[in-house]
Amino acid sequence: MTRKGIPFSKLNGSGNDFLLIDNRGGALDGIDRPAFVARVCDRARSVGADGVILIEPSRKADFRWDFYNADGSRAEMCGNGGRCAARFAVARRIAGRELSFETIAGVIRATVRGRSVKLQMTRPAGLALDRSLTLRGKRYTYSFLNTGVPHAVLFVPDVSKADVMAVGRGIRTHRAFAPRGTNVNFAQVRDGVLWVRTYERGVEAETLACGTGAVASGILAAVHGLAAPPVAVRTSGGERLTIHFDPGRKDFGEVYLEGDTSWSCDGWILEEAYRY
């Protein structure tokens, strides 16, 4: 920490915004991380973000990340956050344009070309098709895939009319996904593009994008015969993502999430922003 505060950068990936902090020198030493994250992600009283990414030393890769959702909970993986972390690391000369970083979900590789980042995702697991559950007396059909974090995907006739908040929250906390819950995606293929809206666990609201959700939705769309890779995805944030995988393999081969990032600002997080 400096007299001015904790240095940070704010980056955005397809509508998901993150606070990036180089913690290799111990900038957050002595600070309760979950409480710090929950406060600085508060959009009304602090900086505001969907999550916080701490860049730390690693013996396995170019760096290790410690990733937190906006509520202060840790997450195994985040596709859009990973793309932002990769770009940040290259800009700060922490890594070269071909890089790897350590996460709870394993070591992830990425390629950075200016604003564009192609990120290797963890191997998908837990595929389950056409499952159903009852929520407030109504039956919903979904498919499931874990792409680093768990995702339920509902294919709907009009994604713009999906009740993402109410239905998403209900499925996220449904006993079928106890005890940790799941992210919930509402997806529709229209004009050759997969449109996805996501209720995100940890943020506890609809976010403008979710990288792991885009990947889960893209793969499941292909499994259901609705799309073929590379799958073009658009989220509520409006930006285009591309999902690469091999539909001919049971494990889908190497899975990549590709898209642009944007760098919003650099600054310092003052003590008042997290000790209110």
**Coarse shape:** globular
Label the structural class: alpha+beta
Mean pLDDT score, rounded? 94
Work out the helix count: 4
How would you spell out the order of helices and strands? EEHEEHEEEEEEHEEEHEEEE
What share of the residues lie within helices?
10-25%
Distance between the termini: 18 Å
The level 1 CATH classification of the largest domain is: Alpha Beta
Plain-language structure description:
With 276 residues, the chain is an alpha+beta fold. The chain has helices spanning 33-40, 79-91, 164-172, 211-223, and strands spanning 6-13, 16-22, 51-56, 63-69, 98-103, 106-113, 116-120, 125-135, 138-146, 150-155, 183-190, 193-200, 205-207, 231-235, 240-244, 256-260, 262-269. It has two domains: 6-119 and 262-273, Diaminopimelate Epimerase, Chain A, domain 1 (Roll), CATH 3.10.310; 125-254, Diaminopimelate Epimerase, Chain A, domain 1 (Roll). It contains four helices and 17 strands. The chain has a 17-stranded mixed beta sheet that branches. The longest helix has 13 residues, at 79-91.
Features:
single chain, 276 residues, Diaminopimelate Epimerase, Chain A, domain 1, 2 domains, globular
Question: How would you concisely characterize the structure shown here?
Answer:
This protein has 276 residues and is an alpha+beta fold. The chain folds into 2 domains: 6-119 and 262-273, Diaminopimelate Epimerase, Chain A, domain 1 (Roll); 125-254, Diaminopimelate Epimerase, Chain A, domain 1 (Roll), CATH 3.10.310.10. The protein has helices spanning 33-40, 79-91, 164-172, 211-223; strands spanning 6-13, 16-22, 51-56, 63-69, 98-103, 106-113, 116-120, 125-135, 138-146, 150-155, 183-190, 193-200, 205-207, 231-235, 240-244, 256-260, 262-269.
